[in-house]
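Example record used in the benchmark description.
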Amino acid sequence: QDFLYAGRLERLKGLQDVIPLFRALPAARLLIAGTGAFETELRRVAEGVPNVEFLGQVHPSRVAELYRAARAALVPSLCYEVFPLAPVEAMAQGVPVLGRRIGAVTEVVEESGGGVLFDTSAACLEALRRLLDDTDAARAMGAAGRRHALAHWTESAHLDRYFRLIGQLLERQDDRRRR
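Model output (structure tokens):
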């Protein structure tokens, strides 16, 4: 079973906390798609962990394929991201998200029901095991995330909200003119 991290390889993304956990999960594989300034250090952390694979820079079409094939997407960010794209992209592909409970990742996962959050390495390992062992729960989270992504984060969803807002503003303007 593959877990996927797709993004920049920087200290603030928190991957250094997750890689060592895969020593305890020989039946799972961590695929890491991306490059960055912290890649050398992450490769050092991954030495002796045979089920961690660095894929390097991956074409966006291949990232979508990797998401669809993954058991879950990992978003272990240590920083407060405003609107994290990785969990949204994963959910759009019907893949559950395992994310650190911090910033907007928390909001995205909790509102969608599309994944699991963790605070500690022990909680992350427990969630990884749960996602591995409970296929039905992983599928249900993936489906919930996909429904939420389609309803809230697609071009058509944004355009619908935009045009509704314009309609409301025009109605208010008409109401003011009638007064």
